[in-house]
Amino acid sequence: MAIFLIVFFAIVGLVIINTIYKPHKSIQDREIKFSGTPVILIKEVNKDFTKWQDKAVQLTGKITSIDNLGFTLEDVVYCQTNTGTKLSQQKLNKTITIIGRVIGYDDLLEELKLDQTIIVN
């Protein structure tokens, strides 16, 4: 009986640990819920932000600013890049396509925030 209880609790413990600590989905593993321009996405987000929270989007637009952690597309979408992304190769006013995950909307700046951003081209 004691062996049965030990095995039972070990199995239950493993199931709980695997459920709690399962790895996060990478941006490549996510289904793209929107493909288009930053301006159109902002209009959709303003209708209902909760619909877009934690969703993967693909955007094509011009880079309007660059900093150490990411860049801004069309002055309305800030794209935070993964560590190791070489932003020095990107230039202002260059049109690029990215895939990223929606993480927030800044009402003050009227700017959508993306993370895990990958530059497609």
Describe the structure.
Helix content is 24%, strand content 38%. The protein is of the alpha/beta class and 121 residues long. A five-stranded mixed beta barrel has the order 2-3-4-6-5. The longest helix has 19 residues, at 2-20. It is elongated, with a radius of gyration of 20 Å. It starts with a helix and ends with a strand.
The poorly predicted ranges are: none
Task: List the helices and strands in order.
Answer: HEHEEEEE
What characterizes the major β-sheet?
5 strands, mixed, barrel
Radius of gyration, taken over Cα atoms and rounded to an integer in Å: 20 Å
Placed side by side, the strands forming the largest sheet appear as 2-3-4-6-5
* Structural class by secondary-structure content: alpha/beta
Question: What is this entry, summarized?
Answer:
The protein is 24% helix and 38% strand. It is of the alpha/beta class and 121 residues long.
List the helices and strands and how they pair.
Elements: H1 2-20, E1 32-36, H2 38-47, E2 56-66, E3 70-73, E4 77-81, E5 95-106, E6 111-119
Keywords:
single chain; 121 residues; alpha/beta; OB fold (Dihydrolipoamide Acetyltransferase, E2P); 5-stranded mixed barrel; 6 strands; elongated
